[in-house]
Amino acid sequence: MKITIVAGARPNFIKIAPIIKSIQKKENEGANISFRLVHTGQHYDKNLSDTFFEELNIPQPNSNLEVKSGSQSQQTAAIMVAFEQELIDNPCDLVLVVGDVNSTMACALVAKKMNLKVAHVEAGIRSGDMTMPEEINRIVTDSITDYFFTTSETASENLLKYGADPKQIHFVGNVMIDTLMQNLGRIQKPDFWETYDLETGNYIILTLHRPSNVDEEASLQKLLLGIDALANGKKVIFPVHPRTKAILENTNIDFKNIIYVEPQGYLAFMYLIKNSFAVITDSGGISEETTVLGIPCFTMRTTTERPETTTIGTNVLVGISIENLEKEFHLFLQNGKRNGGIPNLWDGKASERIIDILLTL
Ligand code: UDP
């Protein structure tokens, strides 16, 4: 079986790493499976792309479509045109897409129109928020997927509700957690640890890049000033995503606690998360990692497509108002850390399960 694996953006790279390792293992054992890796070029900054390939030992892509930035439609269209040619030049039996970025949806559409089978890893998760481009990508991708690989029973149930055949749905666990477990022994202190005098368990990590939080300069400033105040002497390390950086370019605020740093590589970022006091974020993936690491996480969103991070894990959904974050954060300071659990099958073996299933097809 020839599989074309698609990756376009930072969270995709983290998800494909263990899948590729599992394929290589089976290939070495003589199984009839091989892959071709296509990077769409959606994320192309070194610290959002190359660093992840290097740190996670992902092989160099066989092809880079180099689509770069653009509006939602420009980017989606550019990926589709380039990926169609890629598949004409390099035929395969199955296209495997991960996550919920524009590359996921665009490449699934192209593959299906060329009568190829489509496998979607992290299928079935739903926020219910149609203003999120990711939610549209999820729904469109899942409407044409042949093999659904899910991270939770809830995701599998969502797919059944949408009319998927139960035989197509495979609850396998979470490949992001495979990567976390495979690399926990390799995590590294970032080089600014001493510069900022960071202490284990005594700083906060902040990441923000969703349009609802960062696209309005005035409300972003209000949010940051509020977070700076609630930190109350604890340093807040803020790896600034390029989207957020563009908005903050002309803003000069004198923070007491917030420290801007570049987006971090995986190994330094995981070190920072694992040793933090708490995390404030609008990322979905980070709320999964904090769940497994047992780190308190406050998610600045009104919905989550990963409900198990709040029902089982350490994640609290606080909405997008600073007032609500302050309320939830003070409750946490009063009551202490919640004892979270780890969702079913988030055990580091999801990729192996996926490849074992694909080999039976
Ligand atoms: N991440 C990282 N460095 C950073 C910020 C995030 O390595 O500076 C990792 C993070 O641990 C998680 C993934 O990137 O695994 C999440 O990416 P992002 O927030 O871009 O995507 P989302 O989860 O929002 O889809």
From TrEMBL:
SUPFAM superfamilies: UDP-Glycosyltransferase/glycogen phosphorylase. It holds the Pfam family Epimerase_2. It comes from the Bacteria. InterPro entries: UDP_GlcNAc_Epimerase_2_dom (IPR003331), WecB-like (IPR029767). The keyword Isomerase applies. GO terms for molecular function: isomerase activity. Residues 31-358 form the UDP-N-acetylglucosamine 2-epimerase domain. This is UDP-N-acetylglucosamine 2-epimerase (Non-hydrolysing). It comes from Flavobacterium noncentrifugens.
